[in-house]
Automatic annotation (TrEMBL):
Pfam families: DUF3710. InterPro entries: DUF3710. The lineage of its organism: Bacteria, Bacillati, Actinomycetota, Actinomycetes, Micrococcales. Residues 1-45, 207-231 are annotated as: Disordered. This is DUF3710 domain-containing protein.
Length: 231
């Protein structure tokens, strides 16, 4: 290969890379009624309604709902909230985002690429909140084998993105999923005024009244659990 040909190939590759970068969809992904039906920004919710305050996320009380705080042992910080409801588990996280652009389209693409590379079957579906991912992978033999289904949902709000990872019955059953989506839409995100780079996890905290034993009766029906889990 001559130097001229090699140089032309390198220019062509750089052009393709630039084109791929330009094709990243930075538009916001959210239902049209997000501001009135949720998930909400803290500025959109009446102050008198009771919530479990977890810092960056507030959870509305609901009968049969159990919460667990997922903790990164190495960093010693809460990194996610797991909601156990209707024979399903939904892990939620909120991230900072630019004011005028969204994150969910890019995050969804990244999740699809990563899980596909790990051998999972990935499909994008249109859900009530917008595009969502359904990931099917083989469950370990020690967990009974078969196929594990995980559903990723996300919504872009004002300067934040809220992501949910749905497992259990709601991942595969539409009627149950509707109940879990309703729970997701009742969540409130507290972005705060401090400057943060895009995609940074909003700080979470143990709610007031939770004892060191990791369990306490709170406004949520059931238990608020301070479980420890590797992130």
């Amino acid at each position: 290969m001559s130097d001229e040909t090699q140089g032309a190939d390198e220019i062509e590759l750089r052009d393709e890379d630039a084109q791929d970068a330009q094709e990243v969809d930075e538009s916001k992904s959210a239902p049209e009624d997000r501001a009135t039906a949720g998930p909400f920004d803290v500025s959109e919710v009446p102050g008198m309604r009771p919530y479990v305050d977890l810092g960056g996320i507030k959870v509305a009380p609901r009968e049969g709902l159990q919460l667990r705080l997922d903790v990164d042992e190495k960093a010693k910080r809460v990194v996610a909230v797991s909601l156990n409801y209707a024979e399903s588990l939904m892990q939620v996280q909120a991230f900072s985002a630019p004011k005028s652009t969204g994150l969910w389209n890019q995050v969804r693409s990244d999740i699809a690429a990563q899980t596909s590379a790990q051998g999972a079957e990935v499909a994008e579906e249109a859900g009530p909140l917008g595009p969502e991912l359904v990931v099917r992978s083989a469950a370990p033999a020690e967990q009974g084998g078969g196929t594990r289904v995980v559903r990723f949902i996300g919504v872009d709000g004002p300067r934040w993105m809220l992501r949910g990872v749905v497992m259990g019955r709601a991942a595969v059953e539409e009627e149950t999923r509707a109940r879990v989506i309703e729970l997701f839409r009742e969540l409130v995100v507290v972005r705060g005024d401090q400057p943060m780079p895009p995609s940074e996890l909003l700080p979470l905290q143990v709610p007031a009244g939770v004892q060191q034993s990791g369990q306490a009766q709170g406004p949520v029906q059931g238990q608020v659990q301070g479980g420890v889990q590797e992130a």
